[in-house]
Amino acid sequence: MAEISIVLVRPLYAGNVGSVARVMANFGLKNLILVKPCKLGKKANDMAVHAKSILKKAKVYKNFEAAIKNFDLVIGTTAESTNKDDYFLRITISPEELRKKLQKVYGKVAVVFGPEDIGLKNEELERCDIAVSIQSAKDYRSMNLSHAVAIILYELSKGEGEKIQFRLASKREKDLITNTFGAIANLIKYPKPVERRKIFNLMLSRIIGRAQITGREANTLIGVLKKMKKRLK
Amino acid sequence: MAEISIVLVRPLYAGNVGSVARVMANFGLKNLILVKPCKLGKKANDMAVHAKSILKKAKVYKNFEAAIKNFDLVIGTTAESTNKDDYFLRITISPEELRKKLQKVYGKVAVVFGPEDIGLKNEELERCDIAVSIQSAKDYRSMNLSHAVAIILYELSKGEGEKIQFRLASKREKDLITNTFGAIANLIKYPKPVERRKIFNLMLSRIIGRAQITGREANTLIGVLKKMKKRLK
């Protein structure tokens, strides 16, 4: 099983951050990462109960990119999921599907939650390999932040004790695949409308993210893509 | 699927009761029952957010027996579970096992949660048909009340409803991707040892398979790969 960290991006309420720390302890997690958090203080400590040390040791970052850069797999969470396949950014998997994916791998995994009011920004979701959504009632989807963390950790904890198999491709390796493929597409002017190329690249990175490729697969793909690029130049 | 009500027995904190109402709304539940609750007021309403009507309509009872008497099945919850069969009262099933049981039935089901500090009394658990426990880390089992409700409702909600979201790429489309990519690799003589090319193709088809790409993604990939192949010839 992968090693999981929880990343809270711009959390607004100290009580929620404390509650998240507590439920992390309930499921045996230790690494909490905060991006531009609200002030924590007593309220956060009260809600953390016996998990104050998780709060105390939480790493704080000023921006999203710095917070995720050392992870092999970055999982974004969103309350808005879609079934329109032209809006692939919000094509999500369930927590259960996420567990099945993570069971087969090891590596450093970040599960990222956005602010309580508006969630992760599109450009942040774009930087995630996979987006996860908790299926809830249609008329009231917006879930308390710590409830969402509780549900995801509960689901992932079911996968423990499973056997380890592969090293996950790192974020850097996956970016290299997407960028090289993107550069080739550019060379051959695909897709024709320039403004659609960014979307094409995004689609590629999502496919690569979802496929959960191993380090070995990544290296093979990088090899063939570099060779293709060289030949096309 | 059974019709589920949540019963909170002697809840101590108004915020938790409000949070429970919210997560009930998130999972489409309406019936909240309170046995000798703490004073609710503003704190409960604040945490309920858009689920204030659930709080307002909650039925309040003075004793446990009166609260459960109209249900067909009463599920108790406990943080202490045991595998010693001489202490049968705390022999528990997992939320997942509960879901499997409830899927097969209909009727009125109460899921009962005890006070935040000590949980349900033994004599209350005795009155339950089944006891459920959420498997958590051994060194910190005690979970926030509303987190426990969130996890149980999440698990039970899996028994419901619709799935299919977008059209998955067909086998033919996926084969076309793999074969075109394989043909390109052949054109640029990658990997060099001819006998390894079959393995390379297999790796490609596995990655494509794992990524669970949509029909639309498949068509885009087929487009760019065909163009690449044409240019490389």
Would you write up a description of this structure?
The structure is a homodimer of 233-residue chains. Chain A is of the alpha/beta class. Chain A has 2 domains: 164 residues, Alpha/beta knot (3-Layer(aba) Sandwich), CATH 3.40.1280; 64 residues, no CATH class. Helices cover 46% and strands 14% of the residues of chain A. In chain A, strand 1, helix 1 and strand 2 form a beta-alpha-beta unit. Chain A is elongated and about 60 Å long. At the A-B interface, helix 1, helix 7, helix 9 and helix 10 of A face helix 1, helix 7, helix 9 and helix 10 of B. Chains A, B: This is RNA methyltransferase.
CATH superfamily of the largest domain in chain A, called what?
SPOUT methyltransferase, trefoil knot domain
The radius of gyration computed from the alpha-carbon positions of chain A, rounded to a whole number of angstroms, is 19 Å
How many runs of DSSP E, i.e. beta strands of chain A?
Answer: 8
User: How would a crystallographer describe the biggest sheet of chain A?
Assistant: 6 strands, parallel
Strand content of chain A: 5-15%
Biggest chain contact: A-B, 59 and 59 residues
Helix content of chain A: 40-55%
Quaternary status: homodimer
Quote the CATH topology of the largest domain in chain A: Alpha/beta knot
**Mean pLDDT over all positions of chain A:** 89
Placed side by side, the strands forming the largest sheet of chain A appear as: 3-2-1-6-4-7
Domain tRNA/rRNA methyltransferase SpoU type (chains A, B): 4-154
GO molecular function, one term (chains A, B): RNA methyltransferase activity
Family (chains A, B): Belongs to the class IV-like SAM-binding methyltransferase superfamily. RNA methyltransferase TrmH family.
Organism (chains A, B): Candidatus Naiadarchaeum limnaeum
